[in-house]
Write a structure and sequence with these properties.
Domain Lipoyl-binding: 29-110
Number of helices: 5
Helix content: 10-25%
Oligomer: single chain
Function: The glycine cleavage system catalyzes the degradation of glycine. The H protein shuttles the methylamine group of glycine from the P protein to the T protein.
Shape: globular
Number of domains: 1
Strand content: 35-45%
CATH architecture: Beta Barrel
Pfam family, one: GCV_H
Radius of gyration: 14 Å
Distance between the termini: 20 Å
Order of helices and strands: EEEEEHEEEEEHHEHH
Structural class: alpha+beta
CATH superfamily: RNA polymerase II/Efflux pump adaptor protein, barrel-sandwich hybrid domain
Modified residues (N6-lipoyllysine): 70
Number of strands: 11
Cofactor: (R)-lipoate
Largest sheet: 6 strands, antiparallel
């Protein structure tokens, strides 16, 4: 784990400038969630609008929304592909993202252009450097 101030960054994941993370699984699918920075900035989450299974997204499309006491924030698809599973636990317990943002994934995506799109994402060290500029 890398720490930048109060924010934790899990190594081995890929990151976006919009504060989503991507974990590549052995079967080639990816888990997507929001970072520690994102959940701390949002505050206590009250609701996660999960995407529909079967939804096809392009990188940068709105994947879903998360709602906190402070704001409603869009979560963007960090990779293109099809949503093949969602974390149903978040429907009843959105606070799981606040408790452990790197375990509380939002969606599993079957990517269609992973190798190319990963090149455009940051690794943990690059994301840590990016956070220092905010």
């Amino acid at each position: 784990m890398i720490e930048v101030g109060e924010y934790k960054i899990k190594e081995g994941l890929y990151y976006t400038k919009e504060h989503e993370w991507v974990q590549v699984l052995e079967d080639g699918t990816v888990l997507v969630g929001i970072t520690d920075y994102a959940q701390k900035e949002l505050g206590d989450l009250a609701y996660v609008e999960l995407p529909e299974v079967g939804k096809v997204v392009e990188k940068g499309d709105v994947l879903c929304e998360v709602e906190s006491v402070k704001a409603v924030s869009e979560v963007y698809a960090p990779v293109s592909g099809e949503v093949i599973e969602v974390n149903e636990e978040l429907a009843d317990s959105p606070e799981k993202i606040n408790e452990d943002p790197y375990e509380a994934w939002i969606a599993k995506i079957k990517p269609k252009n992973l190798e190319e799109e990963l090149k455009e994402l940051m690794d943990a060290k690059a994301y840590a450097e990016y956070l220092k500029t905010l």
